[in-house]
Amino acid sequence: MESAKAKGVIAGLSKNAQTVLEKRYLKRDKEGKILETPVDMFRRVATTIASAEKNFDKKADVSGLADKFYAMMTGFEFLPNSPTLMNAGRELGQLSACFVLPVGDSMEEIFDAVKYTALIHKSGGGTGFSFSRLRPANDVVRSTSGISSGPISFMQVFDAATETIKQGGTRRGANMGILRVDHPNIMDFIMCKDDQKHLNNFNISVGLTEAFMEAVEQDAEYELFNPRDRQPAGTQNARKVFSRIVKQAWKNGEPGIIFLDRLNKDNPTPQVGEIESTNPCGEQPLLPYESCNLGSINLGRMVKNGDVDWKRLKEVVQLAVRFLDNVIEVNSYPLPQISEMTRANRKIGLGVMGWADMLIMLGIPYNSPEAIALGEKVMKFINDEGHAASRELGKVRGPFPNFKGSVYDRPGQGPIRNATITTIAPTGTISIIAGASSGVEPLFAVSFVRQVLDKNILVEVNPLFEEIAKEQKFYSDELMQRIAEHGTVADIDDIPDDVRRVFVTAHDITPEVHIEMQAAFQKHTDNAVSKTVNFPNSATIDEVEKVYRLAYKTDCKGVTIYRDGSRDEQVLSTGKKEEKGAAPQVEEKKAIKRERPRALQGWTYQMQTGCGPIYITINEDKAGLFELFTTMGKAGGCAASQCEAIGRMVSLAWRSGVQARQVMKQLLGISCHAPSGFGDNRVLSCADGVAKAIQAHMLAKGYDVNLELHAPERGACPECGGIVEHEGGCAVCRVCGYSECA
Fold first, then answer.
1. Residues 6+ positions from 339 with CB-CB distance below 8 Å
2. What is the pLDDT of residues 143-197, one digit of tens each?
3. Is 466 a catalytic residue?
4. What are the beta bridge partners of residue 286?
5. Mutual orientation of helices 107-122 and 151-167 as an angle, nearest 10°?
6. Spatial separation of the C-alpha atoms in residues 696 and 668, rounded to whole Å
7. Active site includes 283?
8. List 98, 281, 556, 611, catalytic entry
9. Tens-digit pLDDT profile for residues 291-339
């Protein structure tokens, strides 16, 4: 009789995890047919990574080690970053998640970086850049007797290149853009994503210095420097700049902040170079041309008999360090410079997921001093054991090549294999595969509702909560629905107090606790900690500033905040001008629908969609756009009826006075399972095709379009409509695995 694993079944693999694996990870043929099971995938990865042992010992037991790697991954005790799961043992062979590229102050260097970015994104990686070397806008360019356009204009070039690669149908590329706070264009940089219509393939962070933070404390001026010659280029009031950073973060979550001097204080190889940037989510500081291979231990699997299973945790740390060092050996790097620099420093980033799960299993509330203390203890253990494992590898395999002159090159310390060992990364889709909470984040929700394709409403419940609720006999479908509607169990009296106390969610926790938890893990992490500080929509700018200052005081290396709804809220009503001291009033708008004349002039546009051609007719009266009709080629059924519904609603909106650009804004970027075309001709869905036909019509007729072609920010997943969590400067769907940062 065949075992479950022989049939391609892995115990503990959830339905969501199976969906994510099938959609994003498993090998397919040219027609899109899945060629492997999850068992096959994990065996492929384990065998490939274990094969590196032959580089050091021709007699190594590769098969035995592959079995250990396989058991560790299929037991969901540890998973490597997504590119390793996707590409190990396959033709592409690119296994790293994150890269940093230098951007020099010449056309040749800038466009070399653009080319390298395209190659990295094509291979499935994300890129970080510092634009701080670029001379400011309007500065002199001696070679051409012209003037510089400045760093932000060149960021737009990188953004456009990323968009083109993304539209080509590969994995979505993500970028981090950093500018030093002492660059002359810093205020423009802080504001560059103000309207959320530009640089949508970038996360941005301001690189803060100790000198700047001291000036903030003193409300003093600080000096700006022209990177062309490092000469002074004026001053700015530090508190004014800091306040602008805080206000923009409050408004839409960006920019984040990174404490550059702290990154370089912990730079293990200062003799090689200065750290200028990080990967897209901010947790991995890297030198130019470095890459890093990340992996995470599932702490939810490290609990035994009501306590932390320190013995198994040590074993998994040792095995995971070996796994990640082997990744460096078998990796196929997208550039020779990256291969050289990565192998010279051999940085790995071992982190964690399932931290919230561990706390729940131990009965410890996330927002308690006990949780903060345990977080520090657990991470110290992982860091200490990780360094010990790297030193053992160093004895056998030798230290990393840039060891001489590094912080480890001290009498009595001995060799170490890797320049860095620990990183706390956002775990995104791998935590879905593992059935774990994400990174060191609290639970995002105990229960939530999602709508599936047949319009049925499903209630998703945290498995630990469901297990406890059934054990204690307070589980019911009606209660789970109520929890999903509330978003928290804090105010539901039907749930026992001790359960409510433990199942806290991100919005039950004060921003200060978020920072305290981040700081606890940062104390014993070589690189940085990716963590999102969640604020309610009602949070004030002063509250955000308080958290930024607390992050600095508690020795965090950076911070990302997200105020609920700040990127996706829509204004649904307008307030009347108020008399002084009067209560706010809501203006009631009465729309008067235009009557239809007997005859109208119209234009018909053909748009190619994944469901076939759609013909969109736009009619006008004397006042302008009046109505819209759709015809779906030979198609019928659901697609045709949905398109007819879109046409009716657009017509009603126009006749009721809604502007065309507002209609376009709602429809542009809506995705379906079958997009069509490439580049500017790419149509993501029938709704997206309707929006693009309206845009084409407006351009042809000379209307003011004034709308960028990009997908709007959403609180729901653009692929499946599921719940989206903000973590580490990224948005991840816990249902289908969609990630803004891939």
1. 331, 333
2. 666 788 899 999 999 999 988 886 444 456 689 999 999 999 999 999 999 987 7
3. no
4. 277
5. 30
6. 13
7. yes
8. 281
9. 989 999 999 999 999 999 999 999 999 999 999 999 999 999 999 999 9
